[in-house]
Amino acid sequence: MKPVEIRVDGLSFSYSSTPVLNGVTMDIAGPRFVSILGPNGVGKSTLIHCINKILAPQEGTVCIDGKDVGGITIKEMAKIVGYVPYSANDAFPLTVVDTVLMGRHPHSRWGTLDRDLDVVYDTLKLLGISHLAMRPFNELSAGQHQKVMLARGLVQEPRALLLDEPTSNLDVRHQLDVAKMLRRLAYGKGILVVMISHDINIAAKYADEVILMHDGSVFAAGTPAEVITEENLREVYGVASKVIEDEGSPHVILRDAVPMDEEKPGAQAEHRGARLREGTEARARPAGRT
């Protein structure tokens, strides 16, 4: 499978009169595992919605393999980019097989059902949930539910997989299971996996690259060690922390929230401006840790 290349250039987006993204520029390419971090409301979900054509950029461009996504049909887009939303509203008592089979829609044509079912069952086996095949989807636990949604994204056979907080609402063990699985999938299938996350330590442990967003822009991007620093966490999240090294990855020990009078918004704005002037971007790097 040819590695996918995604370039976002000067992307801006607003909901009504509320700006959410402001001049986002970044380059990411597979196979690799990328995590997008940042506080609530900084535009993480809006960014991947613009990449995936759910939303249309108001300024700037999103290109996949050099082609503006505006010129790619929805069906073709679904063959390139799989999407696992923050939560699914599927309330109908479909079986797991039928739920996952819905992900094959971009490839559907007359006489392909056997092939589609083969892909579905192979994916369930890959994720270790074959035993759930005939269970009603709406009766699953949160961890099982998330793996089924991941399977539905994978059966699209995409070259990039975008996930909006796939470890939310999961216990610690399942959070680790999902993160490890996503990393294996990135290299095992040769695809780009992009995960929005609020868990800084999981991103630090498993991601090849971290994109840290703040105020609708890319604040910092690079390896976990380059991005997850005490200074960056203070400025972006407003927290005091200690960052230590654990098995080659940064690990964050939270200390306290930074008092409001210490946040110095003017100084932060000046610092962000300097970063933007220096052209801070999320750059594709050769595949790193395996």
Care to describe what's here?
The chain has 290 residues and is an alpha/beta fold. Helix content is 33%, strand content 28%. It contains ten helices and twelve strands. The strands form three sheets. A six-stranded mixed beta sheet has the order 6-7-8-3-9-10, with helices on both faces. It has a four-stranded antiparallel beta sheet with strand order 2-1-4-5, covered by helices on one side. The two termini are 19 Å apart. The C terminus is likely disordered.
Summarize the helices and strands and which ones pair or pack.
Blueprint: E1 5-15, E2 18-29, E3 32-37, H1 44-51, E4 59-64, E5 67-68, H2 74-80, E6 81-84, H3 96-101, H4 113-126, H5 142-154, E7 160-164, H6 172-188, E8 192-196, H7 200-206, E9 209-214, E10 217-222, H8 224-227, H9 230-237, E11 239-246, E12 249-257, H10 265-277
Parallel strand pairs: 3-8, 3-9, 6-7, 7-8
Antiparallel strand pairs: 1-2, 1-4, 4-5, 9-10, 11-12
